[in-house]
Design goal:
The protein is mainly alpha-helical. It has one domain. It has helices spanning 6-12, 25-47, 64-80, 89-111, 125-128; strands spanning 113-114, 129-130. The chain has a two-stranded antiparallel sheet with strand order 1-2.
Length: 139
C-alpha cells in the first residue's frame, strides 16, 4: 500500500524529474513513514490509545498529496540543494513544499481521517471518518 508513487510525484511536482533522477520511490516511502507516524502520534494515540494502530487501515488516497509534499520537503529537495545562499532555487522550493505539507495535513485532519476500523474494504461515513480538532485538549 503506497500513499504516493512516482506518477503522483510527476502530477504534483513534475520539475523534480528534470534533475536527472527518474525514480524517487525510496524518498516517497520514507515520507509515507513520516506521515503515518504523524497520524499515529497526533490522532490515534490521543483518541484511541487503548487499541493498536494499524496503518494499513488508512485510506492511502487521502494522504497522497501530503506524502508527495513531505517527500519533496524532507527528502528530495535536500538532496538536490547545494544549500548555498546565492542562487539555490531548491531551498526556496523546500520552504514552499514544507508549507504545502502542513496545509494539506491540517486539511485532512479537519475533513476527517478515513480509517477502515472494521477492515472490510469500505469506508462508512458514520464509523470510519474521524474528524479531529487539533485545538482540543485530549487527556
Amino acid at each position: 500500500m503506497a500513499f504516493a508513487t512516482n506518477t503522483d510525484l510527476q502530477r504534483y511536482a513534475p520539475e523534480v524529474f528534470d534533475q536527472g533522477v527518474d525514480d524517487w520511490t525510496d524518498e516517497l516511502t520514507e515520507a509515507q513513514t513520516d506521515v503515518t507516524n504523524m497520524i499515529q502520534y497526533k490522532w490515534w494515540n490521543k483518541v484511541n490509545s487503548r487499541s493498536q494502530f494499524d496503518k494499513t487501515l488508512l485510506v492511502e488516497t487521502q494522504w497522497t498529496k501530503a506524502t508527495v509534499y513531505k517527500a519533496m520537503a524532507a527528502y528530495i529537495l535536500p538532496k538536490l540543494s547545494t544549500f548555498r545562499p546565492e542562487g539555490d532555487p531548491f531551498r526556496e522550493q523546500l520552504t514552499f513544499y514544507k508549507e504545502r505539507f502542513e496545509e494539506e495535513f491540517d486539511l485532512q485532519f479537519g475533513l476527517g481521517i478515513e480509517y477502515d476500523e472494521e477492515d472490510d474494504g469500505t469506508i462508512n461515513i458514520e464509523t470510519d471518518v474521524n474528524p479531529f480538532d487539533q485545538s482540543r485538549l485530549y487527556r
